[in-house]
Amino acid sequence: MTTGHGTDGVERRGLMFVLSSPSGAGKTTLSRLLIERMPGLRMSVSATTRAMRPGEVDGKDYLFVDKARFEQMITGDQLLEWATVFDNRYGTPRAPVEAALSAGQDVLFDIDWQGTQQLREKARADVVSVFILPPSASDLEKRLHSRAQDSDEVIRNRMSRASHEMSHWAEYDYIVINHDVDEAFAEVQSILKAERLKRERRTGLVGFVRSLQSQLQA
Ligand SMILES: Nc1ncnc2c1ncn2[C@@H]1O[C@H](COP(=O)(O)OP(=O)(O)OP(=O)(O)O)[C@@H](O)[C@H]1O
Ligand SMILES: Nc1nc2c(ncn2[C@@H]2O[C@H](COP(=O)(O)O)[C@@H](O)[C@H]2O)c(=O)[nH]1
């Protein structure tokens, strides 16, 4: 993997920034804000076999594919990770992620705990994971209804699986409780900013410090 430059001009390895949560806790909302407001961050657009929701755009929100195409993507090793979630298949196309990291960008993932486990197995040092919790079960249910994009049956199904999803919270590096979007965004943004400054991924620091030392000796 090649490296990019941080805002201070020092080279560093790109990171994979993962958001997971029970359905409806706010990952998509926070992801959109991060992409709008954090330069150098690219969204990983997943492939899925689920039906398109009203307002979703193919190629932007997801790559909507049929089951046969998804199967081909698996057998062709085109997915970095994949999982079955709520009876549909979801997966991360490998090529765009590798291209973004190679260009020195960070990549944002909105994926479930199964996908996060697979990314960690492949690249532990480069994965930063955040689990988003809702403030309460009733808020979670309200949010699923207020999104107004899923049937009552789909919402019941997602609520019934929320507890199992949440049982994976302790596998994550950071936990954010999404009471208020602006506050939750500020917390997630602080995590990304701090992780970008981690010494281990700042490959240009050795040269930078050497150059400072040689200036001091001159
Ligand atoms: N802090 C918040 N307070 C109130 N409503 C919120 C908050 N955060 C998100 N929402 C709303 O809750 C709904 C669900 O949010 P969102 O779609 O971001 O969840 P998600 O975690 O991405 O869900 P899924 O896993 O199903 O894709 C949306 O209508 C969103 O506007
Ligand atoms: N393992 C993966 N999980 C993914 C991926 N893309 C999305 N997801 C997760 O699926 C559920 C449902 O999403 P929805 O858009 O149908 O509401 C949610 O938890 C997502 O995080 C993926 O590529 N891999």
From TrEMBL:
According to its UniProt record, the EC number is 2.7.4.8
Name of the protein in question: Guanylate kinase
Q: Give the molecular function GO annotations.
A: ATP binding; GMP kinase activity
Q: Which residues form a coiled coil?
A: none
Q: Which organism is it from?
A: Bradyrhizobium hipponense
Q: Gene Ontology terms, cellular component aspect?
A: cytosol
Q: Which UniProt keywords apply?
A: ATP-binding, Cytoplasm, Kinase, Nucleotide-binding, Transferase
Q: Which gene encodes it?
A: gmk
- Localization: Cytoplasm
> What InterPro entries does the entry give?
GK/Ca_channel_bsu (IPR008145), Guanylate_kin-like_dom (IPR008144), Guanylate_kinase (IPR017665), Guanylate_kinase_CS (IPR020590), P-loop_NTPase (IPR027417)
The membrane-spanning stretches of this chain are none
